[in-house]
C-alpha cells in the first residue's frame, strides 16, 4: 500500500510516496481503507522536527482521516467491515487518572496520529476502534477528514476550556487557518459577536462569508489591537483565539476586556513570548491552553457537522501523489481552510 512519509527531518523534499507492507490491526484496533486525509500545520512541524522529537522511520505523516473499515482486530465487536467512519486523532491509554476522568487529551501517554504514531497519509492505516465515529451517508469523507482535528481542537478550546457564552465578543487572530475557520463557526453558533484579524482583504471577505461580524486588516494603520479597542467602544473582547504566538500575543492581551480569556492551541509564529504581567493581574485575564479534545468533545462537534450546523471549510483536494503541492500551499499561508488528500 502507498503512503506519504519521511525518512528524516527536513524540508518539503524529504516527503516521498513509498510502498509499505499492509498494516495489520492489533487487539482493539481496526484497519481503515483511507478515503480522505487532511493536512494540518502539525504535519509541517513534524516534518521539520524539533529537539526531543522521536519518530520511528519511515514515518507516515497526517493526523486526520476518514474511510471505510477494512479489517477488524481481535476483540472488536461494535463495528462491521465496510462501515463509513471518521477518526478521532487523539490516541490515549484509557487507564490513567485523566483518561478515567474523561480527559483523554490529558492522558499521561497522550499520542497523536502522525506525530507520536504512524499517520493517516496512507491507503490503509490501523486505529483503535474506540477512536471511530460512524459517518452518515450524506457527509463526504473529505468533509469528515477536514473537520476532525480542527473542530475538536476549536470546540474544546472555546467551549470546554473558555466556557464561551452567548452574547460574548470573540476575536480570532488569523482568517484562513483550519482552527480559525472552525473557531469562527463555533463562536457564531454559540451566539457570539466575532471579530477576525487577517492578512488580506481576500481572506477577510471569506471570513465574513463564514459569519464574521467585523474584520480587521492585520496591517491596519495604528495596529489591529487598537482597531479592536475602537470597534468595541473601548471595552475590548471577552475571548481572543491566538494560535500565532510571539508576534501577536501582547496585542491579543491588550485587546481583551476585563476578565477576558486568551485561548491558545498552538503558535505558528513563534513559541517564546515576553508578557507584561501587569496586563494579566490588572485586567483579571486568563490564559487557557489546550491541545486536541477528549473523545466526548469530538463526538459532540462531529454531530454538529453531521447536522449541518458547522461545515468543513475545504480549500482544495489533491491526490496522494500531490501531497507536496498541498503542503507547500499550507506552508505559504496560501490556504483558506483545509487541504485534503483523496485516496
Ligand atoms: Zn491515559
Break the fold down into its secondary structure elements and pairings.
Blueprint: E1 2-6, E2 16-19, E3 29-38, H1 41-48, E4 59-60, E5 66-72, E6 84-87, E7 90-91, H2 97-100, E8 111-112, E9 124-128, E10 132-134, H3 141-161, E11 169-173, H4 178-190, E12 193-198, H5 201-209, E13 214-217, H6 224-231, E14 237-241, H7 249-254, E15 256-264, H8 277-282, E16 286-289, H9 295-306, E17 314-319, H10 323-331, E18 338-342
Parallel strand pairs: 11-12, 11-14, 12-13, 14-15, 15-16, 17-18
Antiparallel strand pairs: 1-2, 1-4, 3-5, 3-9, 3-18, 5-6, 6-10, 7-8
Bound molecules: zinc ion (ZN).
Descriptive notes:
The structure is a single chain. Strands 3, 5, 6, 9, 10, 17 and 18 form a seven-stranded mixed sheet that branches. Strands 13-12-11-14-15-16 form a six-stranded parallel sheet, with helices on both faces. It has a three-stranded antiparallel sheet with strand order 2-1-4, with no helix packed on it. Helix 3 (141-161) crosses helix 4 (178-190). Helix 4 (178-190) links the parallel strand 11 and strand 12. The protein is α/β, with parallel strands linked by helices and 343 residues long. The chain has helices at 41-48, 97-100, 141-161, 178-190, 201-209, 224-231, 249-254, 277-282, 295-306, 323-331, and strands at residues 2-6, 16-19, 29-38, 59-60, 66-72, 84-87, 90-91, 111-112, 124-128, 132-134, 169-173, 193-198, 214-217, 237-241, 256-264, 286-289, 314-319, 338-342. The protein folds into two domains: 2-135 and 313-342, Medium-chain alcohol dehydrogenases, catalytic domain (Quinone Oxidoreductase, Chain A, domain 1); 153-289, Quinone Oxidoreductase, Chain A, domain 1. It contains ten helices and 18 strands. The chain binds zinc ion (ZN). Residues 92-93, 95-96, 98-99, 107-109 line the site of zinc ion.
